[in-house]
Design brief:
The chain has about 220 residues and is an alpha+beta fold. It has a domain of about 100 residues: 2-Layer Sandwich (Alpha-Beta Plaits). About 30% of the residues lie in helices and about 15% in strands. Strand 3 and strand 4 form a beta hairpin. The longest helix has 27 residues.
Amino acid sequence: MKKYFSNIKNSVQTLSNGLKLTMGHLWDARMSRDPIGVAHEDYFLKDKGIATLQYPRESLPVPDNGRYKLHNEIEDCIVCDLCVKICPVNCIDIEPIKAVAVIGKTSDGSTKRIYAAKFDIDMSKCCFCGLCTTVCPTECLTMTKAYDFSTFDRSDHIYEFGEMTPLQILSAKAALEQHQKEQQDSPFPTIGKSTARSAATRPIIMKPKRPNREDD
């Protein structure tokens, strides 16, 4: 009989302790917590309140060094094709067109000799490895902290960074074909001015004649 009432007492105490914990959380949940990032100095102090975010009106802050959505500064791109070659999932698609002459300079002084008729990145295939940003010689390809780019259509994940119009693409291709045709029709190979000048001014060195054994 004594054990029977002891079990009832333990059950009531266990139930009351659980209810106290539940009621404490319920009391703290009268207000919601401010959405602060893990880098905030009060992140571990803000442990009270409702943690649910009212998306999309609220969102958690993302660190500046977050690696999410890819972005390309096409003005600094030299269309070297290294990002395409190293991408393990083939999410980058580039259509290069060689220019007849230098078409500009990047922000770091690199020479641009290739047009980017097409520079598409399919973020639905991206595995966020960051290899393409590592090999980029001009650092024009970067991973941004934009993480929320969900869509209802997968094709909307293809981001186009090429800025050439169809007319400009046709004009660049026609100029390249004309240049290649002129090179094929020319009877002499194209030599740069510096190379031709150095070849013309280079002294001719006559090697001494090797003696003939029969003259001995």
